[in-house]
Write a structure and sequence with these properties.
With 220 residues, the protein is an alpha/beta fold. It contains eleven helices and eight strands. Bound molecules: erythose-4-phosphate. InterPro entries: Aldolase_TIM, TAL/FSA, Transaldolase_3B/F6P_aldolase, Transaldolase_AS, TSA/FSA_arc/bac.
Length: 220
Amino acid sequence: MELYLDTSDVAAVKRLARIFPLAGVTTNPSIVAAGKTPVEVLLPQLYDALDGKGRLFAQVMANTAEGMVADAHKLRAIIPDLVVKVPVTAEGLAAIKCLKAEGIPTLGTAVYGAGQGLLSALAGAEYVAPYVNRVDAQGGDGIQTVNDLQRLLSLHAPGAKVLAASFKTPRQALECLLAGCESITLPLDVAQQFIAAPAVDAAIAKFEQDWQTAFGRTSI
Ligand code: E4P
C-alpha cells in the first residue's frame, strides 16, 4: 500500500519521513494556502523533505479544461513527476482526458460519490480520492462510498487506485484499508494518533517502573 501525508508542513514531513514508510505528500489549495508559501517554493521544499524519493500531488486552480491543463503544465514545470490533482467536474473530466493523452498522471479529487470517482478513472486518472469525512459530515456514508468505488474500479477500471482522503480519525483510515484501498493520505494529527495513544505511554511507564523496582535502574 501507499501511505501519504496530507500537509504543507515541511518540517513535519521531514520528521515523519523518518518514522513512517511514506510514499509521498498530497496537498490541496486550502492546505497550501494555510502555509502561505507559494507552490514554486513549497513543492521543491516538500520534495527535498522526502529526500527526492516520494511522490508529490498538487491541485489545479482553473475551472476550465484548458485552464486546468495549463495549470498542470505549470505545476509539472516545478516538479516534473508531480501527480496533478483535478476536481472531478465536467471540465475536470475533459482535462483528465487531455492530460492522460499527454502522459501526465492525474488524481481525480473532490470525489463525493462512487459513480463520480469511476468516471475520473475511466477518463484516465491514475488515482481517485474520495473525501471520507466530508461525505460523513454531510450525512452520507464515507466508508460505503469507498467500498463502492473500490469495487467499481476493480471491475471496470483496474488500472486506477483509490487514494482515500479526508480523515478525522484513525478508524476511518483503517476502514478504508480494510475495504481494500491501496493508498491513503492522512492529515498530520490523524497520522500521529496511530502512535501517540495515551495508553501506549502508560504501558511503557509501567514497564519502566517494574524494571526499576526489581533492578534499581531502567536500563538493560
Ligand atoms: C484530498 O484530496 C483532500 O484534499 C483532503 O484530504 C481533504 O481533507 P479535509 O476534508 O480534511 O479538508
